[in-house]
From TrEMBL:
<feature type="transmembrane region" description="Helical">
    <location>
        <begin position="80"/>
        <end position="101"/>
    </location>
</feature>
<keyword id="KW-1003">Cell membrane</keyword>
<feature type="transmembrane region" description="Helical">
    <location>
        <begin position="265"/>
        <end position="284"/>
    </location>
</feature>
<dbReference type="InterPro" id="IPR051393">
    <property type="entry name" value="ABC_transporter_permease"/>
</dbReference>
<protein>
    <submittedName>
        <fullName>Raffinose/stachyose/melibiose transport system permease protein</fullName>
    </submittedName>
</protein>
<dbReference type="GO" id="GO:0055085">
    <property type="term" value="P:transmembrane transport"/>
</dbReference>
<keyword id="KW-1133">Transmembrane helix</keyword>
<feature type="transmembrane region" description="Helical">
    <location>
        <begin position="113"/>
        <end position="134"/>
    </location>
</feature>
<feature type="transmembrane region" description="Helical">
    <location>
        <begin position="154"/>
        <end position="181"/>
    </location>
</feature>
<feature type="transmembrane region" description="Helical">
    <location>
        <begin position="202"/>
        <end position="222"/>
    </location>
</feature>
<keyword id="KW-0812">Transmembrane</keyword>
<dbReference type="GO" id="GO:0005886">
    <property type="term" value="C:plasma membrane"/>
</dbReference>
<dbReference type="InterPro" id="IPR035906">
    <property type="entry name" value="MetI-like_sf"/>
</dbReference>
<keyword id="KW-0472">Membrane</keyword>
<dbReference type="Pfam" id="PF00528">
    <property type="entry name" value="BPD_transp_1"/>
</dbReference>
<comment type="similarity">
    <text>Belongs to the binding-protein-dependent transport system permease family.</text>
</comment>
<dbReference type="InterPro" id="IPR000515">
    <property type="entry name" value="MetI-like"/>
</dbReference>
């Protein structure tokens, strides 16, 4: 019996050590993410106001109310509009920077660092910084009103904050993918007389598909749930012209004291994020090229 127990101990010792090291991280994750999510999901079936000790179960009333609520249409539109701009523009600018800085010339590493530095700045600080830039710098130099004060330009202006902060991150992902492409592919194409455009179309782009999977799926998710830029720069204004889904959730949960409905919208927003990001990831993964 003792020999059997020793044998079993040796067999599972490494697994127990691994579980022991991972356990604190899992526990922390559960209390920071898992437990609040479960609570929010349960609250979505109630009419809790966030302050009272009493709450009533309302079943799926909140979920049905979402489809009858006309006020949620504008936040959905704003979130999707912002997402479309950031996904397209950030990826185009990031890819352009990566292609430019993939070449070896004096100061390449310095330029890479300069373009990446904004990414380490917090969302809220970027929101306050660009709110000042739009009103007191750009507005003063060109004698124009702030883009954040115009309902037609406020969403593109907020997307501009994302471009300034996140383009460097996109660049790094594409740069890593570019540097992983075997040089032999380009040499073989050169021997065959391929033009620079042909090399880019038939070698570079297909080999960048894993990077597209990461960047496009990531920015779809970030775009739909954007909150910090809007909260810091406009608070949803002017009027409600920059109110996003995440800000809509925040207002219903904390300002209007309708936690149940606010959490319901948050659940729908999470589903939208999973659908968009998951679909994009699945689409590009099918087209990834193995070397």
């Amino acid at each position: 019996m003792k020999k059997y127990l020793n044998k079993m101990w040796k067999k599972y010792k490494d697994s127990l050590w691994k579980i022991g090291f991972l356990a604190p991280a899992f526990i922390l994750f559960f209390y920071i993410v898992g437990e609040p999510f479960i609570r929010g999901f349960l609250y979505s079936f109630t009419d809790w106001n966030g302050a009272s000790k009493e709450m009533n179960m309302v079943g799926f009333d909140n979920y049905m109310k979402f489809f009858k609520d006309p006020t949620v249409l504008l936040p959905i539109k704003n979130s999707l509009y912002y997402t479309a701009i950031t996904v397209v523009v950030n990826n185009l600018i990031g890819l352009g920077l990566a292609l430019l800085l993939n070449n070896s010339f004096k100061g390449t590493k310095v330029y890479r660092t300069i373009f990446f530095i904004p990414f380490v700045i917090s969302f809220v600080l970027v929101g306050f910084l660009w709110s000042y830039m739009y009103s007191d710098v750009i507005g003063a130099i060109f004698n124009i009103p702030s883009f954040l004060g115009n309902p037609k330009t406020v969403i593109p202006a907020i997307a501009g904050m994302s471009l300034w902060r996140d383009a460097g991150y996109v660049m790094v992902i594409y740069l890593a993918a570019l540097q992983s492409i075997p040089e032999e592919f380009y040499e073989a194409a050169k021997v065959d007389g391929a033009t620079a455009l042909s090399k880019f179309k038939f070698i570079t782009l297909p080999m960048l598909t894993p990077a597209f999977t990461i960047n496009i799926a990531l920015f779809l998710g970030w775009g739909v749930k954007v909150f910090d830029y809007v909260m810091a720069a406009t608070g949803g204004g002017p009027g409600k012209s920059s109110e996003t889904l995440a800000l809509y959730v925040y207002k219903y949960t904390f300002n209007y004291n309708k936690v149940g409905y606010g959490q319901t919208v948050a659940i729908y927003m999470m589903i939208l994020v999973f659908v968009l990001a998951g679909s994009a990831a699945a689409f590009f993964r099918k087209r990834e090229v193995e070397v």
